[in-house]
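Recall from the previous lesson that a structure prediction takes nothing but the amino acid sequence as input. Here we apply that procedure to Palmitoyltransferase from Podargus strigoides. The sequence below is the only information supplied.
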Amino acid sequence: MGRRIHFVVDPQGWCCLALVIFVWLYNTILIPKFILFPHYEEGHISVVAIFCYYFCSLFCIASLLRASVADPGKLPENPKIPITERECWELCNKCHMMRPKRSHHCSRCGHCVRRMDHHCPWINNCVGEYNHWLFLQLCFYTQILSSYTLILDFCHYYYFLPLKKENW
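The prediction returns the following tokens.
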């Protein structure tokens, strides 16, 4: 099954997604500028720490963009229901379409989604059957980047030697 690109027209969701991208850009520019590069110049950390930070940051934004534009499992207008599965389908009360039993109607998106988990405003998309794994990847890479940033901040204040005046 080919993956379709899916956009949700929701101003609140676009604001949340823009806020997440702004925070990502802020951290991707300022953490290296104020913590990584000065400590690298003074020999406190290696270049591997800088590459690891950018590597984690790249994976985080890539998984965010993939999860936000991936089709969550939106049901088509006229689904082809196999004869053997007709008893496993039901009528949606809101959009009046036939849907599989574990599908739910998203009031934010206005359509039914296969195995819908929830509508996430931070990716401005539903989390369903087709993009659930992408959402879990986003959560994992965000946790890795946040932990790495927290460790760098802790090391900057409590472990590394103080910066010289020109790097301060």
